[in-house]
Design goal:
The chain is an all-alpha fold and about 60 residues long. It has helices at about 1-5, 10-20, 25-30, 40-50, 50-55.
Length: about 60
């Protein structure tokens, strides 16, 4: 997720604001502390311009 966010020029703050969560939540997801809930996945796929399958098949949650 961090790689995709960086490619789009989004900060953690911008992604958090666009998806309605805290920066801490984005940070925890990126570091693998916890995964996003389904409702957040839907928001992330819109902001990051990816589909749900990308979160699992393409390891979007894995580090760059």
């Amino acid at each position: 997720m961090a790689c995709r966010r960086w490619k789009l020029g989004l900060s953690q703050e911008a992604l958090a604001e666009a998806t309605g969560v805290t920066v801490e939540t984005i940070s925890h997801i990126q570091r693998g502390i916890h995964g996003p809930r389904f409702g957040l996945i839907e928001k992330l796929e819109m902001v990051l311009d990816v589909n749900t399958e990308s979160f699992f098949k393409n390891n979007l949650l894995s580090p760059c």
